[in-house]
Amino acid sequence: MKLPAHNYLDRLGIPYEMGSFPAETEKGAANVAACFGLRPRQMVKTLIFEIGSGERILVMVGGDQNVVSGHLKKVAGSRNIQLASAEAVKQTTGYVIGSIPPFSWQVEGFRSFLENSLMEEDILGVGGGVWGHEIFITPANLVTASRARVVNLTDRDRPVFPE
Q: In CATH, which superfamily holds the domain spanning 4-151?
């Protein structure tokens, strides 16, 4: 099944592979990773945060990673930031939480950030837009497709902005 995210990658000439897993699979990166024999780190969580100004941003981290609050505030340029509501996520992306592709829906100027440690992975899995459909893509191609800035969001002992 070709989805809008696939069409977007095709238009840009970005290589990827499609994968599918049973729709009855329990939600969660670890469960999806197990379907493909991958590690949870390789399954990218697509998180939408809302800044006090009303701006929404995309943050991508591995399935087994958590965002360091102080790092996120530096990246966002605001101390007033929180996860967007399910309604706000749907309004912003056009997708429901659980299988949001990290590209194809952003308007010009939308800010996206990718956790730096994911650049060390050979392949990453991202939501295809429909639960049960995954897109496999290299980290470099994910950066290109999502127009993301690569930053450190998870290691409190390292600087936020890599050199």
A: YbaK/aminoacyl-tRNA synthetase-associated domain (3.90.960.10)
